[in-house]
Amino acid sequence: MRKNKFNNTSGLTLVEILIGIVMTSIMMAAIYTSYTVVNNSFTQVTDRAKISASGRDIVGMLMRDIRMAGFKYHFGINGLGISTADNLQYVAGDETGTLIDSHAPIIVIKNKLGYDRDDSSVEPTKINTDDLCCDRIHIVYGDFNQNHTAQPYKRYKLTYFADKEPENDFYSVYKTKESWIQENEDLVGSWTDKCPECYIRERIRDHIVDMEFIVTGDEGKILNPPPRPDNPSREHLYSIKIVDVRLTFRSNKPFFKDEASPDKPRLVKGIGDRSREFFDRFLRDSVLVSIHTRNIGSGF
């Protein structure tokens, strides 16, 4: 019988296997660490991009609507029996009506959460008493629909405001669109949110930190406080030429690894006393834009 000889067979010793396992573990740890760093960096860049994109989207909406403020449609000479100009009632919002009913093209209400048609609901409370959020803006403009025989001339009011849902610990931006209903034979009308194109409390974006509106008059001076029809500043309601909009959002999830130290807080800059220091781990980013009004003049 032939005997096999294994004297020349090569193999790995236990020590070599252990060394291989250790080296593989070190390489895997290095790869995982690199992946974690890259993934965290990508997540941070994505979070920044989302906040920035959200701000730009809302600014685009505000820009379009603010530029429409005070617009009045003129149909001109026609053979349809429709008046050449808007004959809708105008409500000043002072002695002749309430502030919330006013037809002034732009009304900014500082530090006012929530919005209700009759403004009779319980005042919304802030999550923290020192929260910045938020200003409210009302924008009124005219439009036209010749196929609507009962009321061809339209008037709309857009309201941007911030509020908090009971189940959330953050504020959201909402938008409401109302229409002025006053048929041809009527001498007076009223705002409603029941028209087909109207809506109430449409949520636009979550995690708003501050929404600030600064108005500038025709002399290039900031109108502070902003003009309102229910006080003497109403004489400047039709002098608004620029609306500076500053929106600040925060990330949905914690962004930074550690909280800020007391001597190096994370600062959100605002106008005047609207700046605030933060020490938590959330990322906050602001967008600021100046919007020129195009249609505000002598009034409706």
Give me some keywords for this one.
elongated; eight-stranded antiparallel sheet; 300 residues; two-stranded antiparallel sheet; alpha+beta
Structure commentary:
This protein has 300 residues and is an alpha+beta fold. Helix content is 18%, strand content 28%. The strands form two sheets. Strands 1, 2, 3, 4, 5, 6, 7 and 10 form an eight-stranded antiparallel sheet that branches. A two-stranded antiparallel sheet has the order 8-9. The mean pLDDT is 85.
Strand content: 25-35%
- Give the termini distance in whole angstroms: 117 Å
The average pLDDT is 85
Low-confidence stretches: none
Number of helices: 1
Rg result = 30 Å
Count of beta strands: 10
Compressed to H and E, one letter per element, the order equals HEEEEEEEEEE
What is the molecular shape?
elongated
Structural class: alpha+beta
What's the story with the biggest beta sheet?
A: 8 strands, antiparallel
Helix content: 10-25%
SSE layout and pairing:
Layout lengths: L13 H55 L37 E4 L26 E9 L8 E11 L7 E11 L8 E3 L6 E19 L22 E11 L15 E3 L7 E3 L5 E9 L8
Antiparallel strand pairs: 1-2, 2-3, 3-4, 4-5, 4-6, 6-7, 7-10, 8-9
Summary of the model, kept short:
This protein has 300 residues and is an alpha+beta fold. It is built from one helix and ten strands; from the N terminus they run αββββββββββ.
